[in-house]
Structure formats: structure tokens, C-alpha cells
Batch of 2 targets.
Target 1
Amino acid sequence: MKHIFLIGFMGCGKSTIARKLSSQLGLPQIEMDEQIVKEQGMPITEIFEKYGEPHFRDIETDLLKRLCEQEDAVVSCGGGAVLRKENIEMMKAAGRIVLLTAKPETILERVKHNNDRPVLNGHMNVEYISELMEKRRACYEAAADFVVATDGKSIEQICDEICNIKC
Ligand code: S3P
């Protein structure tokens, strides 16, 4: 099994890169968040509000388990998918894990007008993003087979880097 899992902080560009990379590699693209919304029939903010974050994490783990058993794909993971060790183990067994990184300032620019990320709602500032990124750093780094820094790079450059890694 050789899935490509794109991981990284919210707003680091996973979905955009997954879209381009999947067409470049001729693999299906899977958006974990989109699939969760579709399957649960409600937005992620509502899942958090009604059932709490641990329940959302259970849904995420369950989806990941199913995805790992399906045909190869480029999977754009939710930013918190690496918070559970079992998720990392499943991804490692099913393919390669590419961590996309970006500066907190870049992240803020990309997410600030969006209110569909419950983890950031009410905390749209560089300080909070930096702190959370720091807290999660060890999880991201433990999961990553490869790291691609995205600041100042075009979508094409980032995808080429990932394709080169793959070879
Ligand atoms: C989350 C990231 C989101 C989504 C949920 C929680 C997180 O995905 O799964 O809001 O904890 O980092 P994106 O990284 O695609 O925004």
C-alpha cells in the first residue's frame, strides 16, 4: 500500500497540494474533513459543539482506518490527525507521510477569514497559532517521513518536491 498522506497544521496548504498532486500522480484525492462532513451530515464546528473534540477524534480515527484499507490515494488529513499515536501507526503502515510546514504568519493569512475551524475560532492571532504549533510539533515530526517547507514556494514547486521524494 502506498498512500500519500499530507499532514500539517491547519492552513498549511494540504488540500491545495493534494488536489494538484493527485492529478499529477493519477491517484484519487481524499479530503478527510470533507468526508467527515459528508458522512456525519453536519459541519465540523457542529460536531465539536454537539459532541466534543474527543468524539470528533474518534470519527477521524475510524475514517483513517477505512481509508488505509482502500485503494492508493493522496489523502489530505485534518490538522489534528497526528495527535493520536494509533493514527500515525496506521498511516505509516499504509504509505508515506509528508509534512507540510508554513510560518504562523502565513497560516494566519490563510485561515483568518474562515470560521469553520473550531480549534482556532476565537483565537485568530499569530501568538495562539505559534503556541499550538509548538505544542503539536513533536507529533508532526514523529509522524513525518518527509518534510516540505512551503513558505514562498509555488504549488508546482511543492508538488515537484514531493514527487522527487517519491522517486
Ligand atoms: C483540526 C484541523 C481541521 C479539522 C478540525 C480540527 C485540528 O482540518 O480537522 O477543525 O485540530 O488541527 P484542517 O487542517 O484541514 O483545517
Target 2
Amino acid sequence: MEIPGNLFVVSAPSGAGKSSLVKALLELDARLGVSVSHTTRAPRGQEQHGREYWFVDEPAFRAMIAGGEFIEWAEVHGNLYGTSRGAIDDRLRAGQDVVLEIDWQGALQIRRLFPHAVLIFVLPPSWDELRDRLRRRGEDGEEVIERRMANAREEVAQARHFDFVIINGLFETALFDLKTVVHSQRLKYASQLRNRSQVFAALGLS
Ligand code: 5GP
């Protein structure tokens, strides 16, 4: 499938700091929009329907699958998550760049559909640091933390399939790395041709 805007996919095990990085990136970059996913998990804390996620029940989610509404979906930690066509189509058609914050299974589905999508994996600097971050979040008991650690080992093994790997040791360094990936993608010929069409036309380039 051909798409006019750049599509960035960011994956990571929970606790690696992916959400904070993407949030900071979006605040700095007005040309970037985030896709809001559907999920069957219950809202946590201050999460709002339509902001963090579209919260739906499983029959509604399954009906969307049957209706072909998702460009990717996956079961993650016992809940269903998916990116709807509508969540990204309008943005991409308007020439905006879109970031998807999804798990590795979804990322690999996106690559099959959009071969030009840029897949970015965020790694923790070490297993000890990941465990410390999960504990510091204070959301889960020790048993859940150990389950997340076991999941993380499987998720991290998928990093080899991604185009870019960012090690989130120091937040500012990781954010700089993420901005660099986004920026360099925008400097590619096809992207420049799209965004700087007048300059290209004046130079006789197409
Ligand atoms: P959480 O429940 O902690 O918000 O997210 C759990 C995991 O599901 C995270 O790895 C998150 O990136 C992933 N996720 C969120 N939305 C989607 C989606 O639309 N598709 C897929 N495949 N994974 C998603």
C-alpha cells in the first residue's frame, strides 16, 4: 500500500519508557500525529476514552476484526489491541506523519502492509534497570513484575527485526535519538519531494 506521509512504529517492552519518549516527541513536533488504538482492557487511572485508547468490549472488538476495520491487531498480555484504518488514514492522506505505539506483533504486520514504515524498538539499558523501573512505577506487585520481566525477554528478542534500536538509558539521549530517526526519514528523497515540492519543481526535479 502506498502512503503519502511517513509512518513510524515504536515498540518496547513495558517499563522501557516508550510512552514517555513518544509523548515528549509529539510535544516537540507539530507535524507528527499519534494514532489512538482500540483496546479491550479497562481504563487505568486518568485514561480517557478517545484520548489514550478507544475502550471497547471484546464483542465490539471482534466485530471490528470481522468487518476488516483493523490494519493490525494483536493480543498483548491477555487483552486485545488494534489500530483502525480510520485512526491513521486521514492523517496520512493529509500528508501528516503518524506514530504508532504498538507491540512487536502489530509492528511486523504494519511492515507487511506498509513496507516503507520505519520500525523503531526501544530497549532498556539492562534487565536490572527494567525491573527497577517497573518497581518504581508502583503499579504492580512482585508477581506481575516477574511476569512482565519474562514477557520482556521475549519482546526484546524481536528487536533484531526492527530498523532502528534506541537504548533508553538517559531519557534526553534517547529522545535525541528518536528525533534523529524521524528527522532523517524526512530528509529522504521521496519525503523531500513531497514536502518541498516547489523547491523541487523550480530545480526541475520530480
Ligand atoms: P498498555 O495496556 O500498557 O497501554 O499497552 C500494552 C501493550 O500493547 C504495549 O506494548 C502497547 O504498545 C501495545 N499496544 C497498544 N496499542 C496497540 C495496538 O493498537 N496494536 C498493538 N498490536 N499493540 C498495541
